[in-house]
Amino acid sequence: MPxxxxxxxxxxxxxxxxxxxxMVGKLQTSIDTDDLRKVRAKVxxxxxxxxxxxxxxxxxxxxxxxxxxxxxxxxxxxxxxxxKLGGIWGCSAWVGICWSx
Length: 101
Hints:
35% helix; alpha/beta
């Protein structure tokens, strides 16, 4: 996703977060490999985005995060806090999860 956003909006700064240092590390490798200078990868807890200022983001996108968050309401509150008034939040969510071996 960061690569697509970088191609479409090359001058727009982007922050990509995940609670997993391993996932952020993989993303950082992709950022370095694909020369995505305007993308910043950060380890952040979706329920406590301490590294993101109030109303600092114009567009927020979550990919299946709300469904898997330990406290979905707290995560939604953080998204609301960091998204500028009049901003946009895009959210994808699973209806259900089924694991099989």
